[in-house]
Amino acid sequence: MSTNSCLNIVIADKNSLLLRGLTEMLKQDERFDIRATATDGELFLKLLERVSIDVGIIGWKMPFADGRQVLTKLRERESSVRVVVYSGADVARQVRSLGGAGFYSKAKPPEGLIDVIYQVGQGNSIFPYEQHEAKMDPLLASLTSRELEILEILSQGHSNRTIASKFEISTNTVKFHLKNLYEKVQVDNRTQAVAFYNKLFREDE
User: Fold this and answer.
1) Sheet order of strands, 82-87 included
2) Residue 71: how many CA atoms within 13 Å on its side-chain side?
């Protein structure tokens, strides 16, 4: 977080009208300082090279570099910038697995985004299903972040080899993680693990 009382913000979205609207809304709040805006993901990444910010707000579907590519690049750079994805797409799980700090749906009132941005700026991670996890499933809470990421990718139908490639680990390490994962969520195989995951998340958002 910045040393002064304001959170330094950069906003990126392909919709210029939305950009202007968000900028005006956030300017009304003295906790935020809008440093710049961008209409594509590539420009957002370039801005981060020369503008010091605390929180980035980005869309998911953007030209030149979409939300997935932006988050991947930031992870590769080991960037300290915390990113909130503001999108109408059902991508909260992907955002979290890619290292994003928060997600807020465009289907909800835009004013709610203000609190999400502030909370993320304070170091919290804000996702729409975290309360559901904490209240409804202690088994899921027992998973490590890597195990949760693997479970998410497993639910998309990927093989052990693909999972190993994504995380740059061996297939034996994937098998080790899966063994621990199965024990923690009390299932016997990947089919049951995927069913467990889908039951929790497919009806959310």
Assistant:
1) 32-38, 7-12, 55-58, 82-87, 102-105
2) 26
Low-confidence ranges of the chain (pLDDT < 50): 1-3, 130-135, 203-205
Beta-carbon neighbour count of residue 65 at 10 Å? 20
- Other Cβ atoms within 10 Å of 47 Cβ, number: 17
Which helix (DSSP H) or strand (DSSP E) does residue 105 occupy? strand 102-105
Whether the pTM exceeds 0.90: the reply is no
- pLDDT tens digits for 77-95? 888 899 999 998 888 888 8
Q: What is the pLDDT of residue 57?
A: 97
End-to-end CA distance of the chain: 29
Domains of the chain, CATH where assigned: 7-128 (3.40.50.2300), 131-201 (1.10.10.10)
